[in-house]
Amino acid sequence: MSYEAIEVEYPCSGIAILTLNRPERRNALAIAMMRSLHRAIGDLETDDSTRVVIVRGAGPVFCAGLDLSEASDRALVRESAECVARTLHCLRYSTLVTIAAVNGGAYAGGAGVVAACDMAVGATDIQIGFPEARRGLLPALISDVLRTKIREGDLAELFLVGAPIGAVRAQQIGLLQRIVEPARVVDEALEMGRGILAGGPQTIRDTKTLLHHAYGQTHGETHSIEEHLKARFSEEATEGLQAFLDKRPPNWLPQEK
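-> structure tokens emitted (257 positions)
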């Protein structure tokens, strides 16, 4: 199968590697790429020989987050938001076990992709950040996949302070399970995948469902999309996105108390 901006390869029986392939845009989450990702995962779910999917990014960065040229286009805002929600949902609730192999950096929606995967391996030199507040955006969709992985105080620091964190801190708060040298990220993810293949196929699927129930996760996403869209159409989002595209600090207007 062929997918736009997504490559799929099979390094060994039972495991597929799905590569976000827009290195010239730091693998930013464009609508077309997210649609391809949904199709690729759906196709892999129907392939009984595949049980594990490793998600990685082409080039020096795993994923820079939303494609802000689309995010700043009001005609595309809802479609983009719905695609983000579906992307996080399909990774989180897939019948496959999903592993993120993180190189370089993962920001905003890209960091959400990492969190949506069941497990994550990161390179020693990665940076993970959630700069939404600095763009006038609300991390409503991402919070759905982060709230069961990260304590409230740590999540507040990520969202409210907005400074990126390194691999060690990401592992401390639960975003990464393993840290390895950059050249070994995919190999380490493959090792985890082979461990998963040693379990019974139905037992692994049932165990993944059990974990979702144990941590109170649901399939609901409508409320989060509406909260996300409310912020995306705000004056602060307009200014924050334009400031980012202009490579200047945003000019936040004073708020009435």
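The CA atoms of residues 112 and 143 lie 8 Å apart.
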